[in-house]
């Protein structure tokens, strides 16, 4: 009898497995919101332990955050306004389950770690034909930053720029290891469209899917994006 996802989840939780950090391919420094310089590591590779750690630690923070909101905002309208303003559109994503499905060679997994915790995660699919220009790029299946790195009423965000940084590293990896030209695309969560427009991505409504707008980074914008580091 084969193990289920829940069997694997329970096994990982019970044994408290720690992720193997030997798949580090880069490192750097990110600024914390209080001005400190925090060293981070960028990891490439499919890893169920890292995926499970995202579920466990990010989920625990989201539960703490929602409990804080319910305890401190008693007015129903005010509470709903606060919750609607939170960036929780991806709170239901199950990274462990995704790792059980998205594991063929067309998919590449990336993580950013700092101070022993996953600060961001990204899964890409390749190759993807560009909708705007010639050549192949990659498609971002999923990308998310730890909820403690997002604006929230519980505490000030920990790190700045983790979302930008993991995408930049993914671009480097795609160019150096996958033979893709600069550029990438995705279907954006509604509350993330402002971020993607800010970094230079263009909407292409003909390719919208399930009410999620399609965005693509043109080659020149991608080169500029990578040069911002």
Descriptive account of the structure:
The chain is α+β, with helices and mostly antiparallel strands. It contains 7 helices and 8 strands; from the N terminus they run αββαααβββαβαββα. The protein has an 8-stranded mixed sheet with strand order 1-2-3-4-5-6-8-7, with helices on both faces. The chain is globular.
List keywords for this structure.
36% helix, 229 residues, alpha+beta, Aminopeptidase
In a nutshell, what does this entry contain?
This protein is α+β, with helices and mostly antiparallel strands. Helix content is 36%, strand content 25%. It has helices spanning 5-15, 48-72, 76-85, 95-101, 162-177, 193-198, 219-226, and strands spanning 24-31, 37-44, 107-114, 117-129, 136-145, 184-187, 202-203, 214-217.
Shape: globular
Helix content: 25-40%
Indicate the proportion of strand residues.
15-25%
What's the count of strands? Answer: 8
Let me know the largest β-sheet.
8 strands, mixed
Average residue-wise pLDDT? 95
Helical run tally: 7
- What's the CATH H-level superfamily name? Gcn5-related N-acetyltransferase (GNAT)
Structural class: alpha+beta
CATH second-level architecture: 3-Layer(aba) Sandwich
Low-confidence stretches: none
Number of domains: 1
Order of helices and strands: HEEHHHEEEHEHEEH
Order of adjacent strands in the largest pleated sheet? 1-2-3-4-5-6-8-7
CATH topology: Aminopeptidase
Text of the CATH class: Alpha Beta
Rg is: 18 Å
The end-to-end distance, rounded to whole angstroms, is 49 Å
